[in-house]
Amino acid sequence: MFEPISPHGKDIADLFIFILALGGIVFALVVGLLTYAMVTGRRRATQEGLPRQVAGNTKLEIAWTAAPAVLLIALFIPTIMVMNSSDPAKVNKDKPDVVIIGHQWWWEYQYPNGGVVTANELHLPIITDPKSNGYLIHLKSADVQHDFWVPQLGRKIDVYPDKENFLYLKPQQAGTFIGACAEYCGGQHAWMRIIAIVQPQAEFDSWLAAQRTPHTTSAPTTSVGAGQGDPKRGEQIFLNNTCINCHAINGTTAQSPIGPNLTHLGSRATLGTGIIENNPANLARWILNPGAIKPGLRMPGYQLSQEDLRDLVAYLEEQK
Question: How is the chain split among helix, strand and coil, in percent rounded to 5?
């Protein structure tokens, strides 16, 4: 949060530093006065006995009432300003740029304007227009309460199952930025990571166009049988198993929205919402026994032959 890449994130970081500095000054003042009172009071008690008892001091009482009031006002005004800057009031709720849906324990990302549905990696363009509020994010939950937070992008916001929230994100620097669900949502809450990938507008447009394009499964190669699977056969294994009851892949008959959308799965860096690296060996482990990697999730393990598993992994990893 101390290295923000958006105006909203910078406002929040600056406010935090201001409050921290003000709190440090108050702490130093209190500790200093307390130390002074202890040292001088002990000296006087040794020399003069118990100090004179005072029933009341009107000036002191006014001072310690007025000082906190001034302090609260000094905190209240910049806080309201940052709230207004990070949460603009004018929101066209009918036209969000991204719909984010929290699940136990993964994130679904829908791009209504681009006709794209993906999972676990949020792609955003760099916003260069100073007059733009940013990318409008519509947040909701499919089950329990979650909390979306990428510190470098801005504020955190609750994701409710019975209430829709909206948030503007205005990234101004390319890169990959990590966030997390900030509301305890079950056993794998700690592994509900957020991977936000910010790209220049041209790269983002290319990514969006690629996501819309159904993948064409390649024909078997001469490497089949030498450690490489057959993606054509893997596609049939995917479509003929219960995978299609939960997952979708564009251009196929698999269109279920229950689990993560697997279209272009091979282009994602991780599996299980950031828990393991996306590579053939880890994907095979995930298919055979996902509960051993991420206990509590609803996906069952599959008992496949080595040949079927190799072909299925080849098909899924080819989705790029």
Answer: 40, 20, 40
Q: Where are the alpha helices (DSSP H) in the chain?
A: 7-48, 58-86, 201-212, 231-240, 280-288, 290-293, 306-317
CA pair distance 181, 206, nearest whole angstrom? 28
**In a structure prediction context, what are the per-residue pLDDT tens digits for the chain, which is 320 residues long?**
788 888 888 888 999 999 999 999 999 999 999 999 888 877 776 666 676 777 778 888 898 899 889 999 989 999 998 888 777 666 777 789 999 999 999 999 999 988 899 999 999 999 988 888 888 999 999 999 999 999 999 888 999 998 888 988 999 999 999 999 999 999 899 999 999 999 999 999 999 998 888 776 666 654 554 457 888 899 999 999 888 999 999 888 888 989 899 989 988 999 999 899 999 999 999 999 999 999 988 888 888 899 999 999 999 998 88
Region at 65 (left for phi over 0; alpha for psi -120 to 50; beta for the rest)? alpha
Question: How would you list the strands of the sheet with 98-103, edge to edge?
Answer: 116-119, 106-111, 98-103, 135-141, 165-169
Domains with residue ranges and CATH for the chain: 7-86 (1.10.287.90), 98-212 (2.60.40.420), 231-317 (2.60.40.420)
Amino acid identity, position 32: G
* Beta bridge pairs of residue 225: none
118 membership: H or E segment, kind and range: strand 116-119
Tokens coding 221: 């190669």
Give the burial string for 1-27 (b: 16+ CB within 10 Å, else e). Answer: eeebbbbbbbbbbebeeeeeeeeeeee
| CA gap 124, 170 in Å, rounded | 9
d(CA 247, CA 214): 15
Token readout for 314 is 């080849």
Cut 0.90: pTM above it: no
Backbone angles phi and psi of 79, in degrees to 5: -65, -45
